[in-house]
Amino acid sequence: ATPTSIMVGTGRAAEFGVLFRKGDALQMLQETRVVALDKTGTLTEGRPELIDLITTNGFDEDNVLRLVAAVEAQSEHPIAEAITRAAAQRGLTEGQIEGFSSITGYGVEAIVDGKHILVGADRLMMRENIELADLDETGEALGRKGRTPLYAAINGHIAAVLAVSDPIKSSTPAAIEALHGLGLSVAMITGDHQGTADVIASELGIDHVVAEVLPEGKVAALEALRERGKLAFVGDGINDAPALATADVGIAIGTGTDVAIEAADVVLMSGDLTGVVNAFDISARTMRNIR
Ligand code: ADP
Ligand code: MG
Fold first, then answer.
1. Four-residue CA torsion sign, 246, 249, 255, 261
2. Which of 105, 201, 234, 279 is deepest in the core (most CB within 10 A)?
3. Are 38 and 237 in contact (CB under 8 A)?
4. In angstroms, what is the span from residue 42 Cα to ligand 2's centroid?
5. Predicted confidence (pLDDT) per residue in 227-260, tens digit
6. What per-residue string of b and e applies to 151-186 under the rule 16 or more CB within 10 Å gives b?
7. Over 70: is that where the pLDDT of 290 sits?
8. Rounded to whole angstroms, how far apart are CA atoms 264 and 250?
9. Domains of the chain
10. Residues with catalytic annotation?
11. Counting ligands in written order, which one lies closest to the CA of residue 37?
């Protein structure tokens, strides 16, 4: 394509709310074979809600939620927001908190009212040698419903399984279908539970799922997918910035974090994934010099 057609292409893309920060991305999209997408906030709304809370070992529901919410009040993860919102809706008051720490990709911990509280993925409980007992299967069953299971332990004993649900964006199914229509293979990369990720991927007809990825593992996951051909990655979070920079074409959702936007080659003005399809469309037209 000529410099003029690139200029026309980027201009046209901007009219569709797709900002090409680098002209060569327009060309690179034509060579792309795989589109990998982050799940939370990209395929989904990124605003989970607490749906389930099942206690064990005689623990009281409201008491567990109160303790867990006190810890989550210190975290900025969307899951944390879902839990604190649910506690507020039940009118539960927060406890006295000390020594908060966030274990990236695993969960959070703190002392609340003198009790040691852990909240997070099953792998956090395994790391801390906490037996899930009967809640293991309960959590897996919640995962099979497409919800993210989280476990809470109090003073080293399993107390509850909680599950949050993050709705799929309304624009996602049609966007995935259109990407398939362009002959692209579609992958999803997430830190979420494997079972949960599998359900969401199968609902959307996604071809490859890479789940339970630690934040520092996203780039390695992308490198593995790259064996299938040139690769675009779509993401929104701070965690996604390294993957956006690594991909042949990094596409950031404009409603995402500044760090993601700065690392991207292409920025979508809205959270609507139709923008990804538009980017491919405009790239094809530009390369064929069609106006
Ligand atoms: P993603 O953005 O793909 O969900 P993260 O690395 O942020 O990936 O989180 C991975 C997993 O770690 C979550 O699905 C959850 O199980 C656990 N986790 C992370 N932060 C929290 C938190 N504040 N409270 C509970 N669990 C958490
Ligand atoms: Mg995200």
1. positive
2. 234
3. yes
4. 6
5. 889 999 999 988 899 999 999 999 999 888 899 9
6. bbbbeeebbbbbbbbbebbebbeebbebbeeeebbb
7. no
8. 5
9. 3-45+168-287 (3.40.50.1000), 49-165 (3.40.1110.10)
10. 38
11. 2
For residue 162, give the nearest of 191, 116, 121 by alpha carbon. 121
81: CB partners within 8 A, 6+ apart: 47, 48, 72
Give the pLDDT confidence of 264-284 residue by residue, as tens digits. Answer: 999 999 888 999 999 999 999
38 Cα nearest atom in ligand 1? 3
Q: What is the pTM of this model?
A: 0.93
Token digits of residue 241: 């910035």
User: What single-letter DSSP state applies at residue 168?
Assistant: B
Query: What residue's CA is closest to ligand 1, atom 18?
Result: 107
Task: Read off the pLDDT of each residue in 148-163 and give the average, rounded to a whole number.
Answer: 98
Task: Kindly provide the ipTM of the predicted complex, given to two decimals.
Answer: 0.96
Question: What are the φ/ψ torsions at residue 96 (nearest 5 degrees)?
Answer: -85, 120
